[in-house]
Amino acid sequence: MLNKRFTLFVISVLILFVGCVSERVNELQSVEIRQYNGENLSSFIELRDVSIKGPQNIDIKSYRLELSGLVNNPRKYTYDEVLAHQKYKKVVQINCVEGWKSKNLWEGILLKDVLDEAGLDPKANTIIFYAYDGYSTSLPLEYILDKNILLGTK
């Protein structure tokens, strides 16, 4: 009987130990998706960097997505709050004024979702974007809503 209790004790300790050890994560080799739903995609490696100051290192802890202007409820989202929204995937072709184009699979949140949360003023007709590196651009609100424009996260 003592031997049986000792065996059960050892098994219990082993189960407890195995459950407390952190799970080992094996990293796999990166792969690039070149086809999605029957569409050929461009290489992200070949995607040109046309930013003003080159790739930026953004501090995720201090990152904020701010919605202001003609809105009833101005908002500032942390990066985690942005990621908490419903995510969508979409193939998008970017046509640059310099003549190159790139078709890639993007994942992100619908810009419409955060605009709805901010409560757009009926007078709003244009959305202006300001990037971390100083770049800015704008899009007509109708275009954003009709084309299901994403705020890309992947």
Could you explain how this protein is built, in words?
With 154 residues, this protein is an alpha+beta fold. The chain has one domain: Oxidoreductase, molybdopterin-binding domain (Sulfite Oxidase, Chain A, domain 2). The protein has four helices and nine strands, in the order H-E-E-E-E-H-E-E-H-E-E-H-E. Strand 5 and strand 6 form a beta hairpin. The chain starts with a helix and ends with a strand. The mean pLDDT is 84. InterPro entries: OxRdtase_Mopterin-bd_dom (IPR000572), OxRdtase_Mopterin-bd_sf (IPR036374).
Tally the helices: what do you get?
Answer: 4
Secondary-structure element string: HEEEEHEEHEEHE
Mean model confidence by pLDDT:
84
Helix content: 10-25%
InterPro entries: OxRdtase_Mopterin-bd_dom, OxRdtase_Mopterin-bd_sf
Protein name: TMAO/DMSO reductase
Organism: Candidatus Methanofastidiosum methylothiophilum
Domain Oxidoreductase molybdopterin-binding: 57-151
